[in-house]
Amino acid sequence: MAKIYSKEVLGISKKVPKKETIQFLLNYSKALNILKIGNKSFEILAN
Predict the structure, then answer these.
(1) Radius of gyration of the chain from Cα atoms?
(2) How far apart are CA 36 and CA 42, in angstroms?
(3) Helix (H, G, I), strand (E, B) or coil at 22
(4) Are 6 and 15 in contact (CB under 8 A)?
(5) Taking a C-beta distance cutoff of 8 angstroms, is the pair 34, 42 a contact?
(6) Which pTM value belongs to this model?
(7) Coil, strand, or helix at residue 24?
(8) How far is Cα 38 from Cα 30, in angstroms, rounded to an integer?
(9) pLDDT digits over 2-46, tens only?
(10) DSSP class of 47
């Protein structure tokens, strides 16, 4: 078991997200509004 975790991992490739994924996350974050009232917070998604 120790051999598995102590090995160096070679050939790690960089993963790049698709443009559609980035656009979806940006649009979601623009539509999301967090409203804090007292000690509670409400998430409102404006579609």
Answers:
(1) 20
(2) 6
(3) helix
(4) no
(5) yes
(6) 0.51
(7) helix
(8) 24
(9) 566 655 666 667 889 999 999 999 999 899 999 999 999 999 988
(10) -
